[in-house]
Amino acid sequence: MRIGLVTKWFSSGQATVARYFRDAFAELGHESFILARPGSGPRAGGSDVDDPVWDAPGVTYASQQEVPTDEYARWASDNALDFAFFDNAYEFGEIRDGLRANGVRTVGRFVWEHFSDDDVGPAQEAFDVIYSMTDAEHERYATMGIEAVRVHFGIHPELLALEPRRDPERITLVWPGSFMGRRKPIDEAIEALARVDDPRLRLLLRGQVKRKEGKLAKAAKRDPRIEILLEDLPTAEHLQSFANADVCLTPSRWEGLGLPLYEATAVGMPILTNDDPPMNEVVTDGLNGLLFASHPDGTTRSGIDAKSPDVDDMARAIEAITDDDLRAKLSAGALEVRERLTWPRTVEDLGSLLESATR
After folding, report:
1. Which of 105, 293, 301, 304 is deepest in the core (most CB within 10 A)?
2. Are residues 189 and 271 in the same domain?
3. Are residues 81 and 148 in the same domain?
4. How many domains does the chain have?
């Protein structure tokens, strides 16, 4: 079959998942085509970094983020599509009229922090099937009357090929900040680090944009254990830099999928995060990481609770992870979890999803 994927097509979580799905569809014997949508906000222009993973065949660049009806129809016709896959796309009428009305089977997924009750009817008109990739999403959809197909996301072979290169004299906590938005509670992480005295600790603040650069520079001046890397990197360099850290510190006020959870697990890296879904769907306290408390802090666009981490409890987790024996135990636990988060299961689930969409 011929499958289209509508997605960003530059270094971002959504695009990475689409790229991995493309590999899965190839394993299943299908041909895939990308409709690359522009980004928004600080990444509206995409990325200027030369990265070969995005230099792929079968890519059409959309004229705008919300693709017009006729553009969808033309893309589907030009590529003789049987299916079109979406991730968090809300132009329901255009998808319905440009694709589904023209015989293309449409399959969509939404992150739970955006998808609200008002979206249910229009989404069901636009999509033949809705799928979910976390238990939190799946359960929320069920309360809305949506029977979503569950796709279990696993660790892609690209990540399993990484070989960490770690400094035994340091304990580096990597904080994956992505686009440095309000979802990531950076102030709390910096404050929690300040409450732990171990000189071996380093907090590597990673981001893909220069937002908050001045503020972070002041924090690094106050605490020389803080290191800052706010630039987009080619995928191979980014993944290696991430893998070289000892611990993933990734509190989140809310989360869609949480790619760093899977990237950390792939390289046997313990994870420190707040005890909220979907983070605690991947991290089990005392097995492959440490969970700390949080408290409600407003709501997301869809109405679910946003959570801010408890700074004292995060500091407790950072203090605990400085114990070499515990860190080694949690690293072994991460490798144990890795054996459960298999890529073949994801491929199998996507095959079942395609079957569901043809019924």
Report:
1. 105
2. yes
3. yes
4. 2
Q: Which of the residues in the chain have pLDDT under 70?
A: 41-48, 179-180, 210-211
B/e letters for 51-71, b = 16+ CB within 10 Å, e = fewer, are beebeeeeebebeeeebebeb
Bridging pattern class, strands 31-37 and 149-150: unpaired
pLDDT tens profile 302-320: 888 999 999 999 999 999 9
For residue 226, how far is the Cα from the chain centroid? 24
354 shares its domain with 282: no
Give the contacts of 60 (CB within 8 A, at least 6 positions apart). 33, 34, 35, 36, 75, 78, 79
Domain range enclosing 55:
2-154+342-358
DSSP 329-349: HHHHHHHHHHTTSBHHHHHHH
Bridge-partner residues for 289, per DSSP?
271, 285
Are 163 and 298 found together in one domain? yes
Q: 96-149 pLDDT, tens per residue?
A: 999 999 999 999 999 999 999 999 999 999 999 999 999 999 999 999 999 999
**DSSP strand E in the chain: where?**
2-8, 31-37, 59-61, 83-87, 105-109, 129-132, 149-150, 171-176, 201-207, 226-230, 247-249, 271-274, 289-292, 294-299, 305-309
- CA–CA distance from 79 to each of 36, 82, 83, 311 (Å)? 14, 9, 11, 51
Q: Do strands 31-37 and 2-8 pair parallel, antiparallel, or not at all (unpaired)?
A: parallel
Whether the CB-CB separation of 12 and 39 falls below 8 Å is answered with yes
Give the domain CATH number at 7.
3.40.50.11930
